[in-house]
């Protein structure tokens, strides 16, 4: 009878110990041999990915693996470098903790980005709508019928010329709109076009346009502009309030009291901001989350300095960005990178202030840099330093 029970009992023990071994292996524990001793040591996991894939992963300057892989590492701090031919290198120092997963997720930018013209009739100025999906631009170098204001929905068309893919919303038959200054309403449903032609010297006229159709009889709102702007301010206040809906009340208080020049990421999980006051940010999530971004945070904020606050992880990072540059900065669509312009360069940095990278240092006109909605390229306005031709819109590839 005892012999009959011995076999199933042994099988049961093997299953139990086998399950325990599998679980411990998945959590990073490994058998270690050395110095005449055998033991079990806990490790952490490093998940290395890149866009594009197939890059080399150097750990403490040693080529260890390729991206899209998982590596077991002893607990400690490591310098991770991800490199791919034809792309700028990515680097970050990561802390590996026992039984936790750390991520090295690299967006690699081309070292020689492709530059393509997407207009050829000249563009005077351009502005992107609040959703980042439509560009309104003025054109003055073609025929009067073609000149005026056009809108391109960047999510609806392939890369052709903007003239052939865009919708004209105001022509220049009356010599009004080719040199207009444009601004979008906070909800993207209207455009204000301010012009100085055909009005007495020193005065301007402002027209309200719909971005979805040709405005044959544009509405002159010069005398009611205050009312229009009041309505737009109410729209913005409503939109800003919707961003904080669902947040904890103490976080809403922190944002209202300490954050200015706020720039929300597209997925609404991060806020780039200038500190309006010097303060120490209290913990919102306590105890702290495990397996989060290993970049050291800075909860002591100084008035006038710029930071990024990660709502999901309750972590705050100081970023090397002049507060004067923040209002013109833009998030890339992945909500992980901030695009900004300084000293004649277009740069990108990760939201935690690391991997500050020059994307483009050729000629372009400041103030006209827009990410493409899918993050594959950026749009600039430039005449390539040729004073004999008008500026046009170009794309710079990011992939």
Q: What do these coordinates show?
A:
- There is one protein chain.
- This protein is mainly beta.
- It has 3 domains: 32-107, Sandwich (Immunoglobulin-like); 115-229, no CATH class; 246-361, no CATH class.
- It has helices at residues 2-26, 162-165, 225-244, 249-258; strands spanning 29-34, 37-42, 44-51, 56-59, 62-66, 69-73, 76-83, 90-96, 101-107, 115-117, 125-128, 134-139, 148-153, 167-171, 181-184, 191-195, 205-209, 219-220, 259-264, 270-275, 279-280, 300-301, 306-310, 315-318, 330-331, 337-342, 345-350, 357-360, 369-371, 377-382, 392-397.
- The strands form 9 sheets. Strands 5-4-7-8 form a 4-stranded antiparallel β-sheet, with no helix packed on it.
- It is globular and about 95 Å long.
- Strand order in the sheet with the most strands: 5-4-7-8
C-alpha-based Rg, rounded:
28 Å
Task: Please give the largest β-sheet.
Answer: 4 strands, antiparallel
Compute the number of strand runs: 31
So what's the overall shape?
globular
Head-to-tail CA distance between termini: 70 Å
Q: What structural class do the secondary elements suggest? A: mainly beta
Overall mean pLDDT:
87
Task: Estimate the helix proportion, in percent.
Answer: 10-25%
Number of helices: 4
Low-confidence stretches: 33-40
Total of domains: 3
Q: Tell me the strand percentage band.
A: 35-45%
Structure in a nutshell:
The chain has 399 residues and is mostly beta strands.
SSE blueprint and pairings:
Blueprint: H1 2-26, E1 29-34, E2 37-42, E3 44-51, E4 56-59, E5 62-66, E6 69-73, E7 76-83, E8 90-96, E9 101-107, E10 115-117, E11 125-128, E12 134-139, E13 148-153, H2 162-165, E14 167-171, E15 181-184, E16 191-195, E17 205-209, E18 219-220, H3 225-244, H4 249-258, E19 259-264, E20 270-275, E21 279-280, E22 300-301, E23 306-310, E24 315-318, E25 330-331, E26 337-342, E27 345-350, E28 357-360, E29 369-371, E30 377-382, E31 392-397
Parallel strand pairs: 3-9
Antiparallel strand pairs: 1-2, 3-6, 4-5, 4-7, 7-8, 10-31, 11-12, 12-13, 13-14, 15-16, 16-17, 17-18, 19-20, 20-23, 21-22, 23-24, 25-26, 26-27, 27-28, 29-30, 30-31
């Amino acid at each position: 009878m005892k012999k009959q029970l011995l076999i199933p009992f042994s099988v049961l023990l093997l299953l139990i110990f086998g399950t325990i071994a599998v679980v411990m292996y998945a959590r990073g524990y490994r058998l270690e041999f050395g110095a005449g001793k055998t033991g079990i040591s806990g490790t952490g996991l490093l998940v290395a990915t890149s866009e594009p894939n197939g890059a080399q992963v150097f750990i403490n300057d040693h080529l260890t693996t390729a991206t899209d892989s998982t590596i077991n590492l002893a607990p400690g701090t490591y310098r991770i470098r991800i490199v791919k031919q034809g792309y700028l290198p990515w680097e970050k120092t990561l802390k590996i903790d026992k039984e936790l997963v750390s991520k090295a997720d690299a967006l690699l930018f081309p070292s020689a980005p492709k530059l393509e013209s997407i207009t050829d009739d000249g563009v005077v100025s351009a502005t992107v709508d609040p959703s980042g999906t439509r560009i309104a631009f003025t054109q003055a170098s073609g025929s009067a019928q073609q000149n005026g204001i056009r809108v391109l929905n960047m999510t609806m068309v392939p890369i052709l010329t903007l003239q052939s893919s865009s919708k004209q919303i105001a022509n220049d038959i009356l010599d009004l709109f080719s040199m207009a200054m444009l601004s979008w309403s906070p909800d993207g449903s209207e455009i204000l076009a301010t012009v100085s032609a055909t009005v007495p010297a020193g005065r301007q006229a402002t027209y309200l346009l719909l971005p979805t159709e040709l405005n044959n009889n544009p509405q002159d709102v010069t005398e009611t502009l205050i009312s229009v702007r009041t309505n737009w301010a109410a729209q913005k206040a409503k939109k800003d309030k919707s961003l904080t809906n669902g947040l904890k009340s103490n976080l809403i208080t922190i944002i209202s009291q300490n954050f200015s020049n706020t720039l929300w990421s597209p997925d609404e999980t991060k806020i780039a901001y200038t500190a309006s006051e010097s303060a120490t940010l209290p913990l919102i999530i306590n105890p702290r989350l495990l397996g989060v971004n290993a970049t050291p945070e800075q909860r002591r904020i100084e008035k006038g300095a710029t930071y990024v606050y990660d709502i999901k992880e309750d972590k705050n990072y100081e970023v090397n960005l002049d507060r004067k540059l923040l209002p013109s900065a833009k998030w890339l669509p992945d909500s992980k990178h901030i695009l900004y312009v300084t000293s004649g360069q277009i740069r990108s940095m990760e939201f935690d202030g690391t991997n500050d990278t020059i994307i483009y240092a050729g000629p372009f006109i400041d103030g006209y840099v827009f990410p493409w909605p899918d993050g594959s390229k950026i749009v600039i306005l430039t005449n390539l330093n040729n004073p004999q031709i008008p500026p046009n819109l170009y794309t710079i590839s990011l992939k």
